[in-house]
Amino acid sequence: MSTKIINVSIMIMVLVLAFLSFETLAHGVDDSTRAFLEQNQGVQFVPFIYIGAKHMITGYDHILFLIGVIFFLYRSKEVLLYVTMFTIGHSTTLLLGVLGDIQINAYLIDAIIGFSVIYKGFDNLGGFKRCFNWQPNTKMAVLIFGLFHGFGLATKLQEFQLPEDGLLTNLIAFNIGVELGQFLALAVILIAINVWRKRPSFHRFSTFINGALMSAGLMLVGLQLTGYIIN
Predict the structure, then answer these.
(1) 49 by DSSP, 3-state: which?
(2) Is residue 114, in this structure, part of any structural domain at all?
(3) What gap in Å lies between CA 103 and CA 158, rounded to an integer?
(4) What is the count of structural domains for the chain?
(5) How confident is the model at residue 25 (pLDDT cuts 50, 70, 90)?
(6) Is there a contact between 108 and 50 (Cβ–Cβ < 8 Å)?
(7) Coil, helix or strand for 77?
(8) How far is the C-alpha of 173 from the C-alpha of 168, rounded, in Å?
(9) 3-state secondary structure of 41
């Protein structure tokens, strides 16, 4: 294995460990954002856009899943299609979850989100074909997991019991922010992946990254299920 691959491996593992060191593991909210959401009254369009964008960029479970989704997509149309499926899914359940006050245990929904990361890494490694001689519908899977990711966003907002005044407008602003954050994150990810695609080491790199995705997903699932049992 080349020095570059080793360096990338070390960097990814350090980042994963750093993420796991936070007390608020999934969908964490910093103190300033928490204070704003708890005291919010009426329409706050721009602040909710900012919160949505920041939440997506720092929501590494979402980012890990998106890395897996676009990893082997080479055409812009394919990237757009898959990201649109994911967006439709999480936008729908984000709005329905909050407006309809659909209560789902946050630990369980975050465990499913962790499982989505495992699924995508396993799928990218050809696990379904090798182990089961069967390939799931990848577009449908992205849409379905997008629905669960949206509920993950909704459960976090529900914790703050946002006032009814301006709620729909604020949710739309939050969702716009999520899409902006998603776009920025994807731009960086695509640039990094495209750089590696031009190198002979890409095959080894891709195998390691998707294995690392599965490992990160397993840790997320384990920690969330532990939180569910304890709480």
Answers:
(1) helix
(2) yes
(3) 8
(4) 1
(5) very low
(6) no
(7) helix
(8) 9
(9) coil
Residue reference for tokens 């920025």: 184
Residue 137 located in a structural domain: yes
Distance CA(51)–CA(36), nearest Å, equals 10
CA 114 – CA 159 distance, rounded (Å)? 20
Q: Are 99 and 167 in contact (CB under 8 A)?
A: yes
Amino acid at site 148: F
Average pLDDT, the chain: 86
Instruction: Identify the residue whose tokens are 């920041």.
Output: 54
What is the SS3 assignment for 93?
helix
CA angle 168, 31, 224 (to 5 degrees): 80
Residue 28: φ, ψ to 5° = -65, 150
Q: Is 100 within the bounds of a domain? A: yes
In a domain, 110, yes or no: yes
Domain range holding 63? 58-230
What is this structure's pTM? Answer: 0.85
Give the DSSP letter of residue 72: T
- pLDDT above 70 (res 139): yes
> For residues 138 and 227, what is the distance between their CA atoms, to the nearest angstrom?
30
Instruction: Show the CA angle centred on residue 11, arms to residues 5 and 16, nearest 5°.
Output: 125
